[in-house]
Design a protein that fits this description.
Pathway: Amino-acid biosynthesis; L-glutamate biosynthesis via GLT pathway; L-glutamate from 2-oxoglutarate and L-glutamine (NADP(+) route): step 1/1. This is Glutamate synthase [NADPH] large chain. It holds the Pfam family Glu_synthase. It is an enzyme of class 1 (oxidoreductase). The chain has 1511 residues and is an alpha/beta fold. It contains 46 helices and 53 strands. The protein folds into four domains: 20-254 and 259-444, 4-Layer Sandwich (Glutamine Phosphoribosylpyrophosphate, subunit 1, domain 1); 474-788, Aldolase class I (TIM Barrel, Alpha-Beta Barrel), CATH 3.20.20.70; 823-848 and 852-1211, TIM Barrel; 1317-1494, Pectate Lyase C-like, CATH 2.160.20. The strands form twelve sheets. Strands 44-45-46-47-48-49-50-51-53-52 form a ten-stranded mixed β-sheet, sandwiched between helices. Helix 35 packs across helix 38.
Length: 1511
């Protein structure tokens, strides 16, 4: 089918936009015995997962809850006459409109469709509902809920009835949509389920409301052998009953980062769908993704259901869609590898943090994403009940009744089948899957490898170009002098995308007076809160750049021809590989070359349409590889901009139904930077050959412009590596692991592009600020072409200067330039108001030079309401709303860091510590930062640090490099920084790209809760970076109960970041702030949260604009740095800052001459300028201004390139009953916590100085146990309690998330039972012991006793775990000592200090990024080396007496604290233990340890004290 032209996505607030996460669970009777008790269990489980869901503006309106169960035949048989036998009919569960006209029309349409397809509608049933207690939003959007029974006119087999009911449902949906009978809210039409085995009850409900709303679920006649339940946390709370889970086959926790690509490729494959099971009915089921406005989970459900109905088994379908990380798994069997490899030739992974639990009505399958980013725990009881959920303890079950406990590992498939009455081992599942077809033979005989094609070819080069011709091409294709110097050359020299610093202060591409390539109008999207970025360096085992080219086969079939494709290990082609591809002509792999140039003066729209037609014609002639080639560009031929060209062809072929029949190979001159390649692949290119980049490198090499590069071929090879590395990094920022999932995913947002341009050529891309269209692109292109191929004027530079990265007098405009820097420093240092006025004029007056989006806006002044400035809020009051950016001690020198804090404390504002922690001696002084940051590295985040905060900021992203972590070179880690960060001097430090305890919005809610428990008096802030849909994320942050949210713009400074990120990631704060305010107002959440903004703010006018767009507080980062001396040399990452601001070099730090008074002066100038604006606008207080977009208007500006811009979306005012500023406090739900009871009972220990013993049960609803207690303890005793003073708390049961988080010295938590994720997070000196109950019916060696990400960021203390841990045990451990009896993947990742002793199995990628500390592992079978990431660490036997003594002491303590049988056995056979024990230690750390030992100092962790009995 030919798809219509698409539509761009709205840039700002829409009712349907949002992200959803949740808690999931399933209860299954393995024997398949149905009961109502199981349904009751499901409802109880759901209530116990309520903390993973959320509420909106009303506490009695949930984000959604639901249950999937087997059709309740017994109930239906009692209420419906003449009901056929079970399984011989279908039942539809429907949401129908309340509008009577629509309601009746839809019912008639359903009845006629049922009849048309050979069925009869036996009965309608109004589903009993009870909406008492529902909130206003839920009631306003509540649909009618009805069921209908559908019976085939002729008896059908079970599989034929399944197919028939699926076709019927699709046909009903299509007809309702085509007649536009459905709507939203109360006018909703939606089929929750239509099936013979499954039925779904769900709605916009809280977990507790589901059972009462649907009396059917409480009816004893409702019986099932399986239930799936779901508690939803959505970032957008506007009424959407249909978005509640379960869907028709799945419940899902997580987010598919690759959704756009998955949807595009699914649509592209639809024309190829064919199957004997569907026959001619295949047209009736199209489009597969028919339901607009659905979630990623719904789209996944559609595709999974198609595969199931099409004949795939449940395990087969799940493994097709969510494969494990097989590409680099050397231990995987050949048969299993062939299975995955074969399916990768025609299906890309649905990638992202995901736990999917699915059912076909008889079996339950579950799968975790390849990186293990969502939790799943399960147990099996003696009576064959399977309990599986996002966490343990969701059903209170006696440990003695449990016979098996486990977790899903990364990429693992789980299957429990009531037909087989067992949990089916994964090996057995794959034995069956791999025997289904000779996948390995098919691959060997059919697939063509590019490596094989180039094996015997000489190292060829492209056609050499004369210097003049090369320069002309470079000019035409948009190369600049700077691009060659600071991008292309460094990539060829280092094989990496080069670093920069201090952010971006140049205009957006659409505002620039210079011609910009089309790439520059697209900004990279990135993962933030609702899904995590990945660390493609430390976790490279899950990444892949492999892809396949050629025609695809039907998803519903499996033949040898499906893998008749060309396999590439990289999408970036060099000369030799492109030469092999362009001459390829084998059966099924035929190349057609399409010229992508045109004559100047030709209509570009017609040229593109002709190219689309040529592509279709080539496919019709049998070509499956289309080379889109612009090498004919020259004096008489203009090249179509490559991004426009590839996306136009890509979307044109999708609409024509032919995209899956061919691949697009670009032979193009324009791309040379990483971002260029990313956009091309993101918009549909299957491979890219950047011919002009290679020729340019050859010229650079010939001219001696490349340092340390021996030959041109090496330069080209290194450049290719740099592009590949950059591509992996950009993918990782989105949380995407594989190229196949990134390709065509359109993971960008556009700024300044005309709506019709986006709709036609970049369909589905979020687009802000409509601007240039095809005509302007063509004009720019032809103008550049004319200049390029005209005669040169003597003395002129061969190419434009550029100046995008560094200020040049003849380059791009920078807001920070010698003039503005000079005026601001003069103003602040001399308290010179006139110099500030001149500075502000240069920044604010954009009539002649467009700089920012806010420069396109002006104030709506009404002189009649203007007031004298004396009536305006005082500057002192306004200053309390100002803050400096959170710049770390490490990125800044100590002197600069302290000056900022002193200044802000003087004016009552906020100073942020940044992510490097803070010296304890600054606490309580003028140099203390009021805002303590909690970033992904958790450096210096201790209980004492948090207890001394007035605000705690969770940094989700940084404006200049969102989605990335950081690295502090060892040379910058001096003794002071090492002490604060709990590491050793001289060892480099890594900040992970993600917070390893935030992979979703409910995880963020948990961290907010943890931090609030760690300091109930502190405000909890969340820092976001502006991007498309940041408003919906901010709504989620508000619902997660944060006190404030910061929207940071893309112009923010940074110590170091990839130049690609600085220039092309994130958007201006104006966009994000406007959207955030609009979404919060629409969701009636604005009153619950303070909104802050920063990212390039410089003047009072900037602050006024931010306030009118919705901000209450305002941050300044780069400007205060300039005030204290920064000259914007952009060398911060080099440790060579000549003015002592951003260096740790003692000699350079002596040059620092900034003073707190300078910062105070600057802030006062800003406040006074703001007061003047307020007076003109007639606002007495800043609060009155907040969100008053009606006092803004668009300015009439003359764009230097002759087009206009539309900023109306920024000025939309949302009607809402909410206040436009924070007016009520969040309910952090601390009053009823278990810790409050412990605090009351521990009063004696606080006062008497003695150790007190407490005992209490615990359950999964008890989260952050010990954290609030520890906070009170730290505030009472300070950093160190008196000798002999302590608390021993004994608990039994299933502890909730974050057990023992931030527990301080003097507190011991002793748990008999199990715990969930984040055990010992931020442990700060406390003692944690977790042991298996004596009554348990399983062995500790098989028992997953704690969840994922234990001891994340721990700085001191001890932990003894009598069982197995999940993934990422000890991640970023900075000083704790831990014993555990086995760990999952990525153990001790990024560890910088402390000790880990692992007594059992070890998962993959152990010690990745580990830079300090020591790990000891028992290598019983001699295979440990295969599980260690060897990049930074060494593996050695135990030889040192200290190591032997340390391991023995830890084992002895472990035995005392937990009664571990494993510890007893190892101690009893000490000789064998020492023989098998191995030490993992970072090599750089070991060198420093040895150096210190040679000088008589031992910096290693000391032996712990001998364990005391804690009966």
């Amino acid at each position: 089918m030919r798809y219509p032209r698409g539509q761009s996505r709205p840039s700002l607030n829409t009712n349907r936009t949002g992200h959803a996460h949740c808690g999931v669970g399933t209860v299954l009777n393995i024997r398949g015995e149905r009961s109502h008790e199981l349904v009751d269990d499901g409802l109880r489980m759901l209530c116990h997962l309520d903390h993973r869901g959320a509420r909106g503006a009303e506490e009695n309106t949930g984000d959604g809850a639901g249950m999937l169960l087997q059709v309740p035949h017994r109930l239906l048989n009692d209420v419906i006459d003449d009901l056929p036998s079970e399984g011989s009919y279908g039942i539809a569960q429907l949401f129908l409109p309340r509008n009577q006209t629509r309601y009746r029309a839809i019912k008639r349409l359903i009845e006629s469709t049922v009849e048309d397809l050979g069925y009869r509608l036996l009965a309608w049933r109004l589903v009993p509902t009870d909406n008492r207690g529902l909130g206003e939003t839920a009631l306003a959007s509540e649909p009618r809920v009805e069921q209908c029974i559908v019976v085939p006119n002729q008896p059908l087999s079970a599989s034929a009835l399944d197919v028939g009911l699926y076709v019927l449902r699709c046909q009903i949906q299509n007809r309702v949509r085509d007649r536009e009978l459905g709507g939203e809210g109360a006018e909703l039409f939606y089929i929750c389920s239509l099936d013979r085995k499954r039925i779904v009850y769900k709605g916009l409900l809280t977990c507790a409301q589901l059972g009462s709303y649907y009396p059917d679920l409480q009816d004893a006649r409702t019986q099932s052998a399986l239930v799936l339940v779901h508690s939803r946390f959505s970032t957008n709370t506007l009424g959407a009953w249909e978005l509640a889970h379960p869907y028709r086959t799945v419940v899902h926790n997580g987010e598919f980062n690759t959704l756009r690509g998955n949807v595009n490729w699914m649509r592209a494959r639809e024309p190829l769908l064919s199957s004997d099971r569907f026959g001619d009915d295949v047209e009736r089921i199209l489009p597969v993704l028919a339901e607009e406005g659905q979630s990623d989970s719904a789209d996944f459900d559609h595709v999974l259901e198609l595969l199931l109905i099409g004949g795939r088994s449940l395990p087969h379908a799940l493994r097709m869609l969510i494969p494990e990380a097989w590409e680099q798994d050397a231990a995987m069997s050949a048969e299993k590898r062939a299975f995955y490899d074969y399916h990768s030739t025609f299906m890309e992974p649905w990638d992202g943090p995901a736990l999917v639990v699915a059912t076909d009505g008889d079996a339950v399958g579950a799968v975790i994403d390849r990186n293990g980013l969502r939790p799943c725990r399960y147990c099996l009881t003696r009576d064959d009940k399977l309990i599986m959920a996002s966490e343990n303890g969701t059903l209170d079950t006696d440990f003695g009744e449990i016979v098996q406990q486990g977790r899903l590992r990364p990429g693992q498939l789980f299957l429990a089948d009531t037909r087989q009455q067992r949990i089916v081992p994964e090996a057995e599942i794959f034995d069956e899957l791999t025997r289904a077809a000779p996948y390995g033979e098919w691959l060997a005989s059919q697939r063509v490898s590019l490596e094989a094609l180039t094996e015997d070819r000489p190292a060829s080069t492209g056609e050499r170009l004369p210097s003049a011709a090369l320069t002309a091409h470079q000019c035409a294709f948009g190369y600049t002098m700077e691009g060659l110097r600071v991008l292309l050359a460094p990539m060829a020299e280092s094989g990496k995308d080069p670093l920069g610093a201090m952010g971006n202060d140049t205009p957006l591409a659409v505002l620039s007076a210079q011609r910009k390539p089309l790439f520059a109008y697209f900004h990279q999207l990135f993962a933030q809160v609702t899904n995590p970025p990945l660390d493609y360096l430390r976790e490279s085992l899950v990444t892949s750049l492999r892809s396949h080219l050629g025609a695809q086969g039907s998803l519903l079939e499996a033949t040898s021809r499906h893998c008749r494709r060309l396999c590439l290990e990289s999408p970036i082609l060099d000369d030799r590989s492109f030469a092999a591809v362009e001459t390829l002509d084998r059966d099924g792999l035929r190349v057609s070359r399409l010229d992508t140039t045109y004559a100047p003066g030709d209509d570009l729209a017609k040229v593109i349409e002709r190219l689309r037609q040529d592509a279709e014609a080539a496919i019709d002639r049998g070509s499956s590889l289309l080379v889109l080639d612009d090498r004919r560009a020259g004096a008489t031929r203009v090249a179509i901009p490559s991004l426009l060209m590839v996306s136009a062809v890509h979307h044109g072929l999708i609409r024509a139904g032919k995209r899956s029949q061919a691949s697009l190979i670009l032979c193009v001159g324009e791309p040379y930077a990483v971002h260029h390649h990313c956009t091309l692949i993101g918009y549909g290119a299957d491979a890219v050959y950047p011919w002009l980049a290679y020729r340019s490198l050859e010229q650079l090499h010939a001219s001696g412009s490349l340092n340390g590069v021996d030959e041109a071929g090496a330069a080209c090879h290194a450049y290719k590596q740099a592009v590949e590395d950059g591509l992996l990094k950009v993918m990782a920022k989105l949380g995407i692991s594989t190229l196949e999932s990134y390709k065509g995913a359109q993971a960008f947002e556009g700024i300044g592009l005309d709506v019709s341009l986006v709709d036609d050529y970049f369909t589905g891309t979020p687009a802000h600020i409509p601007g240039i269209g095809l005509a302007e692109i063509d004009a720019d292109n032809v103008r550049a072409h004319t200049v390029a191929y005209s005669d040169r004027i003597a003395g002129n530079l061969p190419l434009l200067q550029g100046g995008d990265f560094y200020w040049r007098r003849d380059g791009e405009w920078h807001q920070w330039n010698p003039q503005t820097i000079g005026y601001l420093q003069q103003a602040a240092r001399q308290n010179d108001a006139e110099s500030y006025r001149r500075f502000a004029e240069l920044i604010n007056d954009q009539d002649q030079r467009l700089q920012t989006l806010r420069g396109l806006l002006d104030f709506e002044i009404d002189e009649a309401v203007s007031i004298p400035i004396g009536q305006v809020e005082s500057a002192d009051s306004i200053l309390t709303r100002f803050g400096t950016g959170s710049m770390s001690f490490g990125a800044l020198s100590r002197e600069a860091h302290e000056v900022m804090a002193i200044a802000m404390n003087r004016i009552g504002g906020k100073a942020g510590s940044g992510e490097g922690g803070e010296q304890v001696e600054r606490f309580g002084t003028d140099a203390e930062n009021s805002m303590k940051q909690c970033a992904s590295g958790r450096f210096g985040v201790t209980a004492q640090y948090l207890a001394n905060a007035r605000q705690i900021e969770i940094k989700m992203a940084q404006g200049a490099k969102p989605g990335e972590g950081g690295e502090l070179p060892g040379g910058k880690v001096d003794e002071a920084i090492a002490e604060v960060r709990f590491t050793v001097p001289g060892v480099g430090l890594i900040s992970p790209p993600p917070h390893h305890d935030i992979y979703s919005i409910e995880d963020l809610a948990q961290l907010i809760h943890d931090l609030k428990c760690a300091n109930p008096e502190a405000e909890i802030h969340v820092k976001l970076v502006s991007k498309a849909n940041v408003g919906t994320i901010a709504a989620g942050v508000a619902k997660a109960r944060a006190d404030a949210v910061l929207i940071s713009g893309d112009a923010g400074g940074t110590g170091a970041a990839k130049k690609t990120s600085i220039k092309h990631t994130g958007t201006p704060w104006e966009l994000g702030l406007a959207e955030t305010h609009q979404v919060l107002m629409a969701n009636r959440l604005r009153s619950r949260i303070t909104v802050r903004a920063d990212g390039g703010m410089k003047t009072g006018r900037d602050v006024a604009m931010a306030a009118l767009l919705g901000a209450e507080e305002f941050g300044f980062g780069t400007a205060p740095m300039v005030v204290v001396g920064c000259l914007l040399l952009r060398k911060c990452h080099c440790n060579t800052c000549s003015v002592g601001v951003a260096t740790q070099d003692p000699r350079l730090r002596e040059q620092f001459d900034g003073q707190a008074e300078h910062v105070v002066n600057y802030m006062r100038f800003v406040a006074e300028e703001l007061r003047e604006i307020m007076a003109r606008l007639g606002f007495r207080t800043l609060r009155e201004m907040i969100g008053r977009v009606d006092r803004l208007r668009e300015r009439r500006v003359e764009h230097p390139r002759g087009f206009s811009l539309d900023l109306s979306a920024l000025l939309t005012r949302v009607e809402s009953s909410d206040t436009s500023y924070k007016s009520r406090e969040q309910n952090h739900q601390l009053e009823d916590k278990l810790d409050q009871r412990l605090i009351a009972r521990a009063a004696e220990a606080f006062e008497s100085g003695e150790t007190v013993r407490l005992e209490t049960p615990v359950c999964n609803r008890d989260r952050s146990v010990g954290t609030l207690l520890s906070s009170r303890w730290v505030k009472h005793h300070g950093g160190q309690p008196p000798e002999g003073c302590g608390l021993d708390v004994h608990l039994h049961g299933s502890a909730g998330q974050s057990f023992g988080a931030f527990v301080a010295d003097g507190i011991g938590l002793h748990l008999c039972g199990e715990a969930n994720d984040y055990v010992g997070k931020g442990l700060s000196g406390g003692l944690l012991t977790i042991r298996m109950p004596d009554t348990a019916g399983y062995a500790a060696a098989d028992n997953v006793i704690i969840g994922n990400v234990a001891l994340f960021g721990a700085t001191r203390g001890e932990a003894y775990i009598n069982g197995l841990a999940g993934e990422r045990f000890g991640v970023r451990n900075s000083g704790a000592l831990a014993v555990v009896e086995g760990v999952g993947d990525h153990g001790c990742e990024y560890m910088t200090a402390g000790v880990a002793l692992i007594l059992g199995p070890c998962g993959k990628n152990f010690a990745a990024g580990m830079s300090g500390g020591e790990a000891y592992l028992f290598d019983e079978d001699g295979t440990l080396a295969a599980f260690i990431n060897p990049e930074r660490v060494g593996l050695e036997r135990l030889q040192d007496d200290r190591d032997v003594a340390l391991v023995r002491r830890l084992l002895e303590n472990h035995l005392v604290y937990t009664g571990s049988r494993r510890a007893r056995a190892l101690l009893d056979d000490w000789t064998m233990t020492l023989k098998c024990m191995r030490k993992v230690v970072p090599e750089a750390y070991a060198d420093i340890v040895n150096r210190e030992l040679s000088e008589g100092r031992d910096i290693r962790t000391a032996l712990p004290s001998v364990a005391r009995e804690v009966a």
